[in-house]
């Protein structure tokens, strides 16, 4: 049996953290023994949302609860070395950015038999790519969840292609496809005509304030129905971005149209209450919310930057909009508003079919095959 130490930045309610949780709780426990380490916790404001789900499966969990200072990172490095020497894992896998940094620094001090797997799950800056190039020798493999990310590492970080393993994110297709709640729309958006949902943190990366700006353009042009509703769902982790969102809603008098909801444990009713979802962030790896929307048979209005993995096909499973172009976003939202029921039904079927390419079982099986290379 292989003992695998998974190290993540946090267990907050985020896409990377959800993927980690699904992976470790679905691994074949007759062949793999997962252990999870989270660098950050309540002390840093990153509440360990998924900790209960992991512990419910009797998976050992260590939350180092580091702060943000450089001295905290040094303390984290020491704690990781102590854990690896005590637990003696066969494989150590970093799951996101800070865990990658610390584990690559720690790698020269690991027992020789341990194998490190790195991860890249988002678009990197030139500086970050340089670090990948310098430190890639510490990793036996680097797992990435987007074909464009794999190519970026080959072309710009000059990492050998044999070291980069592309494993797409997974989604629980059965759960979202068979979710039953006929009252969801009437309960969440009573009397609404068209309903949009956008799920993601209120952060610099997501640019949620662009959405009411686009609706404001439609309103000024007399093309915004009074019964349209937009639900923005996610934790707020950037006060400046929250202020921009609030100001945009107020400036266009959209208080009755745009509803902000803090994070929720149950997203499925919102998918089923809407006609389409929106993801207009400047860049994404392989966004979970897009996969979940497809599994719930809902098309996605997506920016080009958020669709670099090529999940959405224009006017088949959604609408692709130039990144950062609020006028084009407004036009795309209007196309959804005037879209016929027959067209939406056809797109709904296309969405579900596309989601089956990204089943959770496929993702877990791909990681298990990766780990078996070390047998």
Written account of the structure:
It contains 15 helices and 13 strands. It is α/β, with parallel strands linked by helices and 375 residues long. The chain has 2 domains: 2-170 and 359-372, 3-Layer(aba) Sandwich (Rossmann fold), CATH 3.40.50.2000; 173-358, Rossmann fold (3-Layer(aba) Sandwich), CATH 3.40.50. Helix 3 (70-87) crosses helix 4 (97-106) and helix 9 (210-220) runs parallel beside helix 10. The N and C termini lie close together (9 Å).
Question: In summary, what is this structure?
Answer:
The protein is an alpha/beta fold. It is built from 15 helices and 13 strands.
Question: What topology emerges from the helices and strands here?
Answer:
Elements: E1 2-8, H1 15-26, E2 32-38, H2 51-55, E3 61-63, H3 70-87, E4 91-94, H4 97-106, E5 115-120, H5 126-135, E6 141-144, H6 147-155, E7 164-166, H7 173-177, H8 184-188, E8 195-199, H9 210-220, E9 229-233, H10 239-251, E10 258-261, H11 268-273, E11 276-279, H12 288-295, E12 300-303, E13 318-321, H13 326-337, H14 341-355, H15 360-372
| CATH fold call of the largest domain | Rossmann fold
- Total helices: the number is 15
Write out the strand line-up for the largest beta sheet, numbering strands in chain order: 3-2-1-4-5-6-7
CATH superfamily of the largest domain: Glycogen Phosphorylase B
Give the low-pLDDT segments: none
What's the CATH C level of the largest domain? Alpha Beta
Strand tally is: 13
Largest sheet: 7 strands, parallel
Fraction of residues in H or I helices = 40-55%
Cα-to-Cα separation, first versus last residue: 9 Å
* Alpha carbon gyration radius: 21 Å
